[in-house]
UniProtKB/TrEMBL annotation, chain A:
<dbReference type="Pfam" id="PF13723">
    <property type="entry name" value="Ketoacyl-synt_2"/>
</dbReference>
<feature type="domain" description="Beta-ketoacyl synthase-like N-terminal">
    <location>
        <begin position="36"/>
        <end position="192"/>
    </location>
</feature>
<dbReference type="InterPro" id="IPR014030">
    <property type="entry name" value="Ketoacyl_synth_N"/>
</dbReference>
<protein>
    <submittedName>
        <fullName>Beta-ketoacyl synthase chain length factor</fullName>
    </submittedName>
</protein>
<dbReference type="GO" id="GO:0016746">
    <property type="term" value="F:acyltransferase activity"/>
</dbReference>
<dbReference type="InterPro" id="IPR016039">
    <property type="entry name" value="Thiolase-like"/>
</dbReference>
Automatic annotation (TrEMBL), chain B:
<dbReference type="Pfam" id="PF02801">
    <property type="entry name" value="Ketoacyl-synt_C"/>
</dbReference>
<dbReference type="GO" id="GO:0005829">
    <property type="term" value="C:cytosol"/>
</dbReference>
<dbReference type="InterPro" id="IPR016039">
    <property type="entry name" value="Thiolase-like"/>
</dbReference>
<dbReference type="InterPro" id="IPR020841">
    <property type="entry name" value="PKS_Beta-ketoAc_synthase_dom"/>
</dbReference>
<comment type="pathway">
    <text>Lipid metabolism; fatty acid biosynthesis.</text>
</comment>
<dbReference type="InterPro" id="IPR000794">
    <property type="entry name" value="Beta-ketoacyl_synthase"/>
</dbReference>
<protein>
    <submittedName>
        <fullName>Beta-ketoacyl-[acyl-carrier-protein] synthase family protein</fullName>
    </submittedName>
</protein>
<dbReference type="GO" id="GO:0006633">
    <property type="term" value="P:fatty acid biosynthetic process"/>
</dbReference>
<dbReference type="InterPro" id="IPR018201">
    <property type="entry name" value="Ketoacyl_synth_AS"/>
</dbReference>
Length: 265, 399
């Protein structure tokens, strides 16, 4: 069985109740944490673009910027993989509603922001990044598949890679289909070798034919269950905060990926 | 700097587009200059433009076992999978390597959003998705790969790449990495995009749609014609198919310039091109044919024409085939990879249908009409919204 080892150098996190990774660690220590502003700040965007940018872009760029800042790397050098189960559901809802009623009045701006790679586009433009950028999706396995794609890029190219996985809340009839009721984003800067920046090591191993192990657990009402990406990310997020642990992510419909996390010595 | 990769065998490939179902109809159309564009008869409201529509999709429902995935995009995927014995080749790979050792990496721009649009036109009395379309997996961008994984019974890494018009070119790069790392022994790659109101009215709103059949690189070009296509390829290590055509290299880059217009000097496009040549271990003068992105939009063609004119010698031939098929968006990468592979296999440089008076930025490389010519190395360019670029290099097995 092939395994990949990558090294985490930066972590970004955003949920309606958690503004960053430090807030999560504080919350897990039992401290009271203030909720972040309703809209992710995404200060990496120029102010005029930040005002106009769709929520999906703000969320992805906020966590991306947090992770890159923590890593101390230059964003312009990092190939990046943006993963999202549903892309911008708010724009998709607007587009489908408009097309059903007055198709010739579709907003050109909404259309060009509707592409799945809009966050990757805004990010590479804002950071002057000419490296490869990708936008991927794998449904409820979007985090595991994104981690596999980013780790594969990191190992084959032997360069640090930015992974961003995010989904905003759903809207309208489409939101009913996605079952995504809250926003969540996570970002990691992964490196192929240990450096002074290394925060943790991840050992990744594929576990095929694991459909039975990937069925969702009974719901408990926790906030992260309102977002499929957050629900799948939650065990990994806890391990990142505590600095150790093993968890299983879905990488595809029946393909599990074991993720063993150890803190850098 | 990118280092050369070990080439992979393209042991099977197929395409379905407005030119027909399977490779034979495509080769015949490219050889004779028969285009596939027609006046728009697709959108739910009138829109005066030309489209590249696949005939017969409406009459090709999915098998009952896959009814959960029923929608026009997955129908086109299923229609495409059954051409050129591709389905048998993919199932044979599954048999040889095991279901978990065959990766599936597909590109799409719109997936099955057409089904979501349809749902919104027929919402129930509570304003919700009508019962017949209340199937969550088809209202997600992973719908295509989810369906194909089920249809082929694959259980390896499964990914949808959705980087607009470079989507199904980048799948070759993702697949090569998975195979190189030993995470898979083979990969089914490809892409499908179908016509839908989102793209027809969306590109129309951006004023990028031509009222006439598109004319890539012509001085009189007025924008794009949108098409639809399905295409697939099977990638394996060379030892498994030593005589097969090969993926020699790929390049990926970002313009970092603008969401919907290319870098004025073609910076990102050139980075992707140089990256592909470096990985393939090739010089520009070894390239016999380039299938250009060539959408027929004013700025994109000008930038790409200038890039080809300054990088390649006059002996390299180049053309856009979008005058034949329309711009098939997320499926353009695989469709035009198939054209590059056909060019090598059959010694045919496809003509640049629709162009009679080339833009002054064009160099001597532009092939206006189809030419018989030995092609040993062919490139395929794909550039997408958000400044996302990919370039693929294909070649034949050494004699």
């Amino acid at each position: 069985m092939s395994t990949l080892q990558v090294h985490v150098e930066g972590i970004g996190l955003w949920a309606p109740t958690l503004g960053d990774f430090a807030a999560l660690k504080a919350q897990l220590r039992g401290e009271t944490v203030d909720a972040p502003p309703t809209r992710p700040a995404a200060i990496v965007l120029p102010a005029n673009e930040r005002r106009r940018a769709p929520e999906s872009v703000l969320l992805a760029l906020e966590v991306a910027d947090q992770a890159v800042a923590m890593s101390g790397r230059a964003a312009s050098d990092l190939p990046c993989v943006f993963s999202s189960a549903y892309g911008d559901q708010s724009i998709s809802d607007y587009m489908c509603a408009t097309l059903a009623n007055v198709p010739t009045e579709l907003s050109p701006t909404k259309f060009h922001n509707s592409v799945h790679n809009a966050p990757a586009g805004y990010w590479t433009i804002a950071t002057g990044c000419h490296a490869a950028s990708s936008a991927i999706t794998a449904g409820h396995a979007s985090l595991g598949a994104g981690l596999l794609e980013a780790a594969a890029l990191c190992m084959t190219e032997q360069v640090p890679v930015l992974l961003v996985c995010s989904d905003i809340a759903g809207h309208g009839p489409l939101g009913d289909m996605s079952g995504t009721r809250t926003a969540f984003g996570i970002a990691l800067v992964l490196a192929p070798a240990i450096t002074s920046r290394t925060l943790a090591h991840l050992d990744l191993a594929l576990l095929p034919h694991a459909g039975h192990a990937l069925h969702p657990s009974p719901s408990t009402g926790a906030w992260y269950e309102g977002n499929p990406v957050a629900a799948s990310a939650w065990p990994l997020v806890q391990n990142l905060a505590t600095g150790q642990g093993e968890c299983t992510l879905a990488a595809a419909e029946t393909l599990a990926m074991s993720v063993v996390l150890e803190t850098a010595a | 700097m990118s280092v050369p990769i070990h080439p992979l065998a393209v042991s099977a490939f197929t395409v379905t587009s407005a030119l027909g179902q399977g490779l034979e109809s495509h080769l015949a159309a490219l050889s004779t200059g028969r285009g596939g564009l027609r006046e728009n008869d697709f959108s739910s409201a009138p829109l005066a433009c030309w489209i590249g529509r696949v005939d017969g999709v409406e009459d090709a429902p999915l098998p009952a076992a896959h009814a959960m995935w029923e929608c026009r995009n997955n129908r086109l995927a299923w229609l495409g999978l059954r051409q050129d014995q591709f389905l048998d080749c993919a199932l044979d790979a599954r048999q040889r390597y095991g279901a978990a050792r065959v990766a599936l990496v597909l590109g799409t721009s719109t997936a099955s959003i057409g089904a979501t649009e349809e749902g919104y036109r027929h919402l129930d009395e509570h304003g919700q998705m009508p019962p017949e379309l209340r199937r969550p997996p088809i209202h997600a961008p992973h719908s295509l790969a989810g369906f194909v994984a089920e249809a082929l019974g694959l259980e390896g890494p499964c990914l949808t790449v959705s980087t607009a018009c470079s989507s199904s070119a980048k799948v070759f790069a993702s697949a090569e990495r998975l195979i190189r790392l030993g995470l898979a022994d083979a990969a089914v790659v490809g892409g499908v995009d179908t016509l839908c109101d989102s793209v027809l009215f969306g590109f129309n709103a951006l004023e990028l749609v031509s009222p006439e059949p598109c004319q890539p690189f012509d001085q009189a070009r007025h924008g794009i014609s949108i098409g639809e296509a399905a295409g697939f390829a099977l990638l394996e290590r060379i030892a498994a198919a030593p005589e097969a055509l090969r993926l020699l290299g790929y390049g990926e880059s970002s313009d970092a310039h603008h969401m919907s217009t290319p870098h004025p000097e073609g910076l990102g496009a050139e980075l992707a091109l140089r990256d592909a040549l470096a990985r393939a271990g090739l010089r520009a003068d070894q390239v016999d044919y380039i299938n250009l992105h060539g959408t027929a939009s004013l700025k994109n063609d000008e930038v790409e024409a200038a890039l080809v004119a300054r990088v390649f010698p006059a002996s390299t031939r180049a053309s856009s085939t979008k005058g034949f098929t329309g711009h098939t968006l997320g499926a353009a990468g695989i469709l035009e990879s198939a054209f590059a592979l056909l060019a090598i296999r059959h010694g045919l440089v496809p003509g640049n249908l629709g162009c009679t008076h080339p833009d002054q930025a064009c160099g001597p490389q532009l092939a206006l009409v189809s030419e018989p010519r030995e092609v040993n190395v062919a490139l395929s360019n794909s550039f997408g919204f958000g400044g996302n670029n990919a370039c693929l290099a294909f070649g034949r097995a050494p004699a």
